[in-house]
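So, could you explain this one?
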Amino acid sequence: MANASAAAVAGTSWCGHCGMSLAAPSGSGSSVRCAFCHRLTRVERHRGVTLAAPSPPRAAVSAGLEIPAGYYPSVSGKKRALLVGVSYRGTAHELKGTVNDVKEMRRLLCGKFEFPGDCILELTENERDPTRVPTRANLLRAMRWLVEGSGSGDSLVFHFSGHGVQKLDLNDDEVDGYNEALCPADFEQSGKILDDEINEIIVRPLGRGVKLHAVVDTCHSGTILDLPYLCRLSRTGYWQWENHDRPSGARKRPNGGLAISISGCSDDQKSADASGFSSESSSSIGAMTDSFIKAVEAEPGTTYGRLLSAMRARVRDGQGSRRLPGRLGSFVRWMIPSSTLQEPQLCSSEMFDIYRKPFLL
């Protein structure tokens, strides 16, 4: 408590992006630029106390957050990927199958889309290297690695399997009034990663000719990248883009590139494991990750529309198999939508014909 009080009096806060300490100026409503990552953090004072991002773990502060030699894979070629599986081991939030999600995504990227294995960075709690554990600080650094130095023709993939939550939006940049957020392994100590931060780090820096695909298997993940367009797709195949440009007027588009997210469910839904309802799953895996991989492998050269429809059908049949099996059950689930069933979502930084544009990583 004494240390916290001293920090408040001295005007010290922490960068919301990398966790480095900041010297907060006097006055309220100011933004401070971090000397380490050069990003802005909003800092406010209430009754003499500086409010900003929560303090990072003590170990991260003492280490100074320097990037260790060999922390990032050396990128060769035009493809790179960041695969994250958070298990929350030893906590009440523990998940099974997230490490399997990462393994299966690596297999898909290397085997089907020719991603070089040494250009794929994995963050899981199975890693012995502490810099590869999916803490908030490590994940933010890894996301910067994913886009840093990318150029025209590059294909980037971000995959996250873990917990996702909603938080009340306080700056009027969400259509539904809620921010979406990812939960790193240490989210209870260091905080969650808001969609605003994700957009700033891996969407807005994308230059012309750079393509990013985010595959996010969490609850409340529909608009997790804060992209301006959400695809509304009916079960009869009718589709349209819904404009999600923010009421505040904040522009959250790439700098000439293309960003597309494929997520596990809408913002108000929860995601599930595939174990228990898929007879083909020999081990636990996220329902969304399972449906994505199976849909991509089943139809080479598929379009975004066909991919999304196939994913939804697989998830719908899988989650409903415990209730009414067989063709009758499939027909009933197709005819009668249920808000309790997760439906994978498609968002993009630009509009396109989802049944004509081929899906390619």
